[in-house]
């Protein structure tokens, strides 16, 4: 019975409305976004590997490539606004020309590549680009960082991972297999894998990924039974189109264990997931992704945190 002030709709209308909602949810998919690789370029020797990897993947994944560079603008503190804007404009044009020349130097084909010079800080410019209607994947170089530099300067890769919630491909300082056929996915039973984002990554690679390996490092405080249960759950979920296997290792140092494992498996890339914990304060705590980034020897795909996780 309708309460006072409401309108009682006929039953057939209500049933039709819910039927339409069900049909829309399970049969109509949103229009697919265009895929875009945003490659952070600083003209170091490592940028060449980022550029070549992004272009190699883009050619096979029908993705666009956007190169983003943050110039260093030196303007006297007492410069008036007009002069300062003139200096910024000059440095921006110079950086754009350098970006194009760098690309032509390292790539034989520059089609489907666009260029952007950051007008604000790198992170602000990147966040602005990520708000555009694309499925964005960020490429950033891993240079390796000494202990003192970690404390005083940090890492661009860590900042990008920390300040964005998109897939990040972290490219190491040495050459590696640009056409991996295996993804090694590090998981933890207490922190659910973002399977929605993993599915998008797998869709990008298509049939190029033949094998998936779900890995867990089990410390003394962890439950091996629960670890194996979660690994088996993931194996069943993904086995079929691809060969899916699971492996668990006992150890207290996840970084060292995974690094040693990946050194022996150069056929693929390591997939890790951004956590909800802080990525800073490196003096007192060590986190897996930070150590992998600072070590700069393993190619990484970093999945964003699943919405709703804390």
Write the layout of secondary structure elements.
Layout: H1 11-27, E1 35-40, H2 47-61, E2 64-69, H3 81-106, E3 113-117, H4 122-130, E4 135-141, H5 147-152, H6 156-163, E5 167-171, E6 182-186, H7 195-205, E7 211-218, H8 224-238, E8 243-250, H9 254-263, E9 268-273, H10 288-295, E10 300-303
Parallel strand pairs: 1-2, 1-4, 2-3, 4-5, 6-7, 6-9, 7-8, 9-10
Antiparallel strand pairs: 5-10
Strand arrangement across the biggest beta sheet:
3-2-1-4-5-10-9-6-7-8
For the secondary structure, the number of strands is 10
Name the helicity range.
40-55%
Top CATH class of the largest domain: Alpha Beta
Name given to the CATH architecture of the largest domain: 3-Layer(aba) Sandwich
Poorly predicted runs are 1-31, 146-154, 276-286
What's the domain count?
2
Spell out the helices and strands N to C: HEHEHEHEHHEEHEHEHEHE
Distance between the termini: 42 Å
CATH fold annotation of the largest domain: Rossmann fold
Proportion of strand residues: 15-25%
Instruction: State the helix count.
Output: 10
Arithmetic mean of pLDDT? 80
Largest sheet: 10 strands, mixed
In terms of structural class, how would the helical and strand content be classed? Answer: alpha/beta
Oligomer status: single chain
Estimate the global geometry from the Cα principal axes. elongated
Radius of gyration: 23 Å
Protein name: Nucleotide-binding universal stress protein, UspA family
Organism: Pontibacter lucknowensis
Characterization of the model:
There is one protein chain. The chain is of the alpha/beta class. It has two domains: 35-141, Rossmann fold (3-Layer(aba) Sandwich); 182-298, Rossmann fold, CATH 3.40.50. 40% of the residues lie in helices and 19% in strands. It has helices spanning 11-27, 47-61, 81-106, 122-130, 147-152, 156-163, 195-205, 224-238, 254-263, 288-295; strands at 35-40, 64-69, 113-117, 135-141, 167-171, 182-186, 211-218, 243-250, 268-273, 300-303. The chain has a ten-stranded mixed beta sheet, with helices on both faces. The protein is elongated. It starts with 10 loop residues before the first helix and ends in a 7-residue tail after the last strand. This is Nucleotide-binding universal stress protein, UspA family.
